[in-house]
From TrEMBL, chain B:
InterPro entries reported in the protein's UniProt record: BFD-like_2Fe2S-bd_dom_sf, FAD/NAD-bd_sf, FAD/NAD-binding_dom, Metab_Enz_Cyan_OpOx_G3PDH, Opine_Oxase_asu/HCN_bsu
UniProt keywords, alphabetically: Oxidoreductase
GO-annotated molecular function: oxidoreductase activity
Signal peptide residue numbers: none
Keyword Oxidoreductase in record: yes
Domain FAD/NAD(P)-binding: 3-325
Name of the protein in its database record: NAD(P)-binding protein
Keyword Oxidoreductase attached: yes
Biological classification of the source: Bacteria, Bacillati, Actinomycetota, Actinomycetes, Micrococcales
Length: 385, 461
């Protein structure tokens, strides 16, 4: 079985590895190379804390568990020059200010019913866990399973491992499909045609455009996010700390600027403040509005941040579907085309489980995961594309 | 009345301010330095030795024009954000010491902006260059010009370009024994660059000859096709290895010799400060060997209302910066390029552009320099990243390479190492370089609290 994977972001890299390990002959095609786009312009949170009960939460719980073994495996037989995944299970703390306690508690209760570990913290425990947190915080819940990787390095590690399993990387742009209408037999690229039994579309925020080039319809759009990085300092943030308004922003389709605050420190001593959500197409001029709003919320969580200095900021475009659910599985109209996209702000976390579902779709290998909620045949993905 | 903002108070910015005033605009000029003058007229009100300054009268005239024209002059003000929109341009600055109290925020809204942010001087890595006692030529010059202090008792100057000469001269004037000036380019390149049409060099050639004369008076040897290829010492500089180079700047085996010294000044040209222009959306020309803001004859960039002048548009020295600034400011204010009052600057601009081309031909960085590096020579000093680490990841996109190696992610954000890292990537067969290392959305350090304050007060957010 010969498979072309379009895109060498986290999704393409994870799929390439899963397929190559299961015996497929894999060619990864990316126009810029490995981890050149969204997967190097994000945070590497592997979260369960922000997921409301539902199919994405189930996928996230499974994927979170898979990351632990995967990261260990990628790091264990790491040749010189291959970066480490920097997997760390540091856990998250979601906090609410006065007025938000009840909503947070209801949310956590619902999550516990689906199997997410969510532990209420009393004031004393919170003061020990995060001594620099604002005293105005009224409620805190700990999510011990929240973890992280360095997303760019994890993507590079996944692809390097896939290449060692026989996959090939071609740096070229996919310009169209091979085969007859309704039946894909490979791709045309700027480096020539590549024949394949199956083509997997892992083109992130561009996967709608790639689908169109392959004769399919898929509504995937970009949602811009900005992240702030401070100059290094002695560590004063010990977990991932989120304002519980995070929960509200993820599912919303509103075009206007939204921010939900995540504050954490990195091994290098910098503090990362994420992130904003705006639907502005691929506009690269971020302006200061998102940064200002995030800074204000971060200072509310950790007042000491007021006197710290911003070192840099960066932004990326989350790939999202109109119903904010990942799109994983065979295209309903074009045979030989499988999608793995639309993971919005959770693609790093969801990559291993997505790869397993893609292997299931392409090779028929078994999976305990339920593919149905993510199938591209669901309503609302083609009508607007 | 049209309001023109000028970002940068070096020769280009000062001339732009004067030009904009002459064309009848209201002018605001912003510079992060404590005093106007930029790199060229870097000075200290009391300590500066007038012999160290060139064309000082010109500076005084420009300052006078600003005062006379009622320009708003903001010094000690770092612009951290620059945005262009259909409504005009907005610059946001913070005034005051980054670590001190009493900082204040200033916004400048204008109809047009002249970006005159100049260039950093560039020092290519050399094994041993992280030892105390090694500085950039620019830093050595600044120390001499502003504070009257010499970097060392016995100094070796190495690098390329005519700017090494004033650096050596300044060092000599403040009492350092300059053991030698090693010009990396060879005589044929220099002759090819400087000699065929000497009339184009007019004033510059005179200046050059003047410096060579000054070096001779101070008995400072000037060697071409020669460079410091290693710095020696245990805890600080004790000497250097100099070698002869081929036309591509590759050291020629067997020509190495040791020279004792306690300071080294390295200057391999300049890296323009492009981040403000990039934030404003301006198109950039060139590659890692030289990348500049693209401008037309009137110094217009690709973005309406945004002009650029001086070293951000090409390395041509202070005269070029002055001519370009005068044109940019005048046109930004609504003046016409063919206005008789611009005749002088337009002619000077044409002349100095030829000089810049010549400069590049004679002194442009050649790819062979990387062969004087060891595998474990540190290239990115902030994050202690070696040449080997960069070369190992050269095959991935720049962004991924930086995240994997951490090259350019430290406090200087690649300002010092960017070009060198890109050269190593290119030499190792990596993807074509992009403006990746020059894009810094945060133009200058700003506090989280200062950002947060904008969330409440700014109607645009
Ligand atoms: C600010 C921000 C913060 C985020 N934080 C998190 C987080 O904490 N945790 C988390 O799990 N997720 C997070 N995400 C989301 C995550 O980054 C994405 O879901 C994920 O990176 C998407 O990966 P991908 O492989 O689908 O896309 P990409 O990484 O964008 O890869 C797609 C690839 O396709 C290639 N391509 C496109 N078109 C073509 C073509 N025609 N031919 C060839 N190649 C093509 C591109 O070059 C690119 O390399 C965040 C996103 C943003 C923007
Ligand atoms: C060591 C050295 C020696 C030199 N010797 C000579 C010589 O002998 N003869 C000669 O002709 N030329 C010489 N030059 C070159 C000369 O200095 C330049 O050609 C000239 O200064 C360029 O003018 P400019 O206005 O473009 O830039 P600059 O003089 O560099 O001015 C740019 C200004 O912009 C400001 N700025 C940048 N970004 C920001 C920001 N974000 N916020 C606020 N302010 C900002 C800086 O503070 C600076 O003052 C020398 C340069 C150096 C470094």
């Amino acid at each position: 079985m010969r498979v072309v994977v379009i895109g060498a972001g986290i999704m393409g890299a994870a799929c390439a590895l899963a397929l190559a390990e299961r015996g497929a002959e894999v060619v990864v095609v990316d126009r810029v190379g490995v981890a050149g786009e969204t997967s190097s312009r994000c945070e590497g949170n592997l979260l369960v804390s922000d997921k409301a009960p539902g199919p994405e939460a189930d996928l996230a719980i499974a994927s979170n568990a898979m990351w632990r073994d995967l990261a260990e495996r990628l790091d264990a037989d790491r040749p010189a020059g291959q970066p480490a995944t920097e997997f760390e299970a540091k856990g998250g703390i979601v906090v609410a200010f006065a007025g938000g306690e009840a909503a947070l508690e209801r949310f956590a209760d619902a999550q516990r019913a689906t199997g997410i570990r969510a532990e209420a913290m009393d004031a004393a425990a919170l003061a020990i866990a995060e001594p620099f947190l604002s005293p105005e915080v009224a409620r805190a819940i700990r999510y011990p399973d929240d973890a992280q990787v360095q997303p760019s390095n994890a993507t590079q590690a996944l692809l390097a491992t896939a290449l060692r399993h026989g996959a090939r990387l071609v740096i070229a742009e996919v310009t169209g499909g091979l085969g007859r209408p309704g039946r894909l037999a490979g791709v045309r690229t700027t480096a020539g045609p590549i024949a394949a039994d199956v083509v997997v579309d892992c083109a992130g925020p561009w996967s709608g455009e790639v689908a169109a080039r392959l004769g399919a319809r898929l509504d995937i759009r970009p949602r811009r996010g900005v992240i702030l990085v401070t100059t290094p300092m002695p560590q004063r943030v010990f977990h991932k700390v989120y304002d519980s308004d995070y929960v509200g922003a993820v599912g919303s389709g509103d075009a206007a600027l939204q921010t939900s605050t995540v504050v954490e420190s990195t091994p290098g001593g910098t503090v990362l403040i994420g992130s904003s959500r705006e639907r502005v197409g691929f506009d690269e001029r971020t302006g200061v509005a998102p940064a200002a709003a995030m800074a204000a919320k971060a200072v509310r969580l950790f007042p000491f941040l007021e006197h710290t200095t911003l070192l840099r900021s960066y932004f990326g475009f989350r790939p999202y579907a109109p119903d904010h659910l990942p799109v994983i599985g065979p295209d309903p109209e074009v045979a030989g085309l499988v999608h793995a996209t639309g993971h919005e702000g959770a693609g790093i976390g969801l990559a291993p489980a997505t790869a397993e579902l893609v292997a299931h779709a392409v090779l028929g290998t078994p999976t305990a995961l339920d593919p149905r909620p993510f199938l591209p045949s669901r309503r609302g993905l083609r009508e607007t594309a | 009345m049209r309001h023109v903002a000028i970002l940068g108070g070096g020769p280009a910015g000062l001339a732009a301010a004067q030009g904009a005033l002459a064309a009848g605009a209201r002018v605001s000029l912003i510079d992060e330095g404590d005093r106007l003058g930029g790199q060229f007229w870097r000075h200290h009100e009391r300590l500066t030795d007038p012999r160290l300054q060139h064309a000082w009268h010109r500076f005084e005239r420009l300052r006078g024009a600003l005062a006379g024209g009622g320009a708003q002059v903001l010094v000690g003000a770092s612009v951290w954000s620059a945005e262009a929109s259909v409504d005009g341009v907005r610059l946001r600055a913070v005034v005051g010491d980054a670590d001190g109290d009493g900082r204040s925020a200033i916004d400048v809204d204008a109809d047009a902006v002249v970006v005159a942010t100049g260039a950093h001087d560039l020092a290519l890595p050399v094994p041993g260059w992280t030892l105390p006692g090694v500085t950039t030529a620019g830093a050595a010059q600044a120390l001499a010009k502003r504070d009257g202090v010499a970097v060392g008792r016995r100094t070796v100057v190495s690098g390329s370009g005519p700017f090494l000469l004033p650096v050596a001269h300044s060092l000599a004037l403040v009492g350092s024994h300059v053991v030698g000036v090693h010009e990396t380019s060879r005589m044929p390149a220099l002759a090819g660059g400087w000699l065929p049409r000497p009339w184009e060099l007019a004033g510059k050639a005179g200046e050059f000859v003047g410096y060579v004369g000054a070096l001779a008076r101070h008995r400072i040897p000037y060697r071409t096709g020669s460079a410091v290829v290693r710095v020696l010492g245990r805890d600080r500089v004790e000497g250097v290895v100099v070698a002869r180079l081929d036309a591509d700047w590759r050291p020629m085996p067997g020509t190495e010799r040791e020279v004792a010294c306690d300071a080294v000044a390295l200057g391999h040209g300049f890296t323009p400060r492009l981040e403000a222009a990039l934030a404003l959306g301006c198109a950039i020309d060139g590659d890692h060997r030289g990348r500049f803001v693209a401008v037309d004859d009137a110094q217009r960039t690709s973005v309406a209302g945004v002009f650029a002048a001086g070293e951000v548009t090409g390395i041509g020295g202070a005269d070029a910066a002055l001519a370009e600034g005068a044109v940019a400011g005048f046109v930004a204010a609504g003046g016409a390029l063919d206005d008789p009052r611009l005749r002088g600057p337009v002619a000077a601009r044409r002349r100095t552009h030829a000089f810049a081309t010549r400069l590049e031909r004679a002194h442009g960085i050649r790819p062979g320099w990387t062969s004087w590096l060891d595998d474990d020579t540190i290239v990115c000093r902030c994050e202690a990243v070696t040449r080997r680490a960069v070369a190992e990841r050269a095959d991935v996109p720049l962004r991924a390479m930086r995240l994997a190696t951490r090259a350019g992610l430290g406090p200087c954000q690649g300002r010092t190492c960017g070009r060198a890292v890109e050269a190593i990537v290119a030499e190792s067969g990596g993807a074509a370089a992009s403006v990746g290392f020059d894009r810094r959305p945060v133009l200058a350090p700003v506090r989280i609290g200062e950002l947060a304050a904008l969330a409440d007060t700014d109607p645009r957010t």
